[in-house]
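Before we proceed, please read the two lines closing this message. Report back on whether the structure tokens fit the sequence:
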Amino acid sequence: MEKIPRYDSRDALSWTRTENSATALRRWHLDLFTVRGWCTAGAGGLLVFVAYLLGRHEMMALGLALVALALANWGLALRLRGRTIIHRELLSAVPSVGEVSKFRLSCAERSIIQEQLPEDFGPGPRFQAPGSIEYELVFRTRGIHLVGPAQQIVVDPLGLIQGMVRTGASLQIPVRSQLHRLDRFAPLGERTLTGDAKFSRSTTTDYYDVATRDYQQGDSVRQVHWKASARHGKLMVRQENHVATAQALLALDTSFEHWNHSGSDLRISLPQAHAEALTSSRRFENALSLASSIGLRYATSGYQLAFRDLTGASLAQRDPQSVSELGALNSFEDFHAATSDLALANGTVEANGSEILGNTLRKELLVFREEPVIMILGELTAPQAAWLATLSRTVRNVEVFLLVSHPEPYRQIQLELARTSWKVHILPGNMAIDEMWG
């Protein structure tokens, strides 16, 4: 079995797409004319001009025939291109950065098709239709990438036309933030990710198990558990115990100025299909990847996270309607899906002294005073760290990740936050996540 070709944008960073023909020619597909085609059309035009000057009708007819031959071949090639039906599909799940995505491109008409990959990947696979081809892509940046439209190689028997024209539609691929396994790193949430949910809220009555207790006056006869009563020698009644699903809050700093702080922050352009590309930085991409990885770990441990920015606005596409074990994974999936077009914003929190959290988020923190809170922040000043430390009086179970350009100057901030009972990580944000705890 032939090996499926795999294309990785990391392996094609030095490749640049070039167009040999002029823009005006490409706009009207006139770049399809070969040298023979241009010579035929030019000779026909010259004969028409000379015949007009000399008044020779037979020369005029020959010139018009040559021009018509070239134009007929050009029009026929474009018409055949328009009748070609291309079908493209994503065979794997919606990808995240670094994951392998499998695609299939098929065509039922007789033609030569070459896939057109996103700009970072270089030339795509080519196959002879009718038939299909499967290939794999590894995306290294999140965003909404365009695959296609495919290119069809068109030729004519006389050799007047030869070239590649776009055919079929393109496919938009939302690529989400990268996920990492954090098990071998710092013991994230070690106080909360062990055993039963310590900080929990009761769910709806759809989630319960049955326990027993002694019969009390006023209990309905329908509640009597006869088998337990016979076993204990006294009346026992059923008691509905709601199974609790723990909740947690993850606050992510999305302020543009905190992640593009200096020249050391490498700016990254994130494609958004046909819309304008988003501007990000490597440090924020690492922070978003860390947020997604922590969110997945908490969700698989039964914690339903609320994802917020520093103003308190939701970062997920929708907030969960109910607290349940299934809702924990759903809330994470909603957030992870939203990362494909998550953008940095200017001035996300109104300037109010050293306060870095908006009023909405501060109020919501009061609800989570006994539950896990994860904060992933960018640049932070000493006064802001001092103000943030005052929240430890009411919100006790907090883990702070401060991703900075250079950790060395942050000793004063570390001292401010060390006075709290919080767990604080000051990490070099421009390094790969796998190396941050090295």
Remarks:
- Residues 100 and 138 are 5 Å apart (CA to CA).
- The first helix runs from residue 23 to 27.
- The chain has three domains: 6-175, 208-242, 246-436.
- The first strand starts at residue 6 and ends at 8.
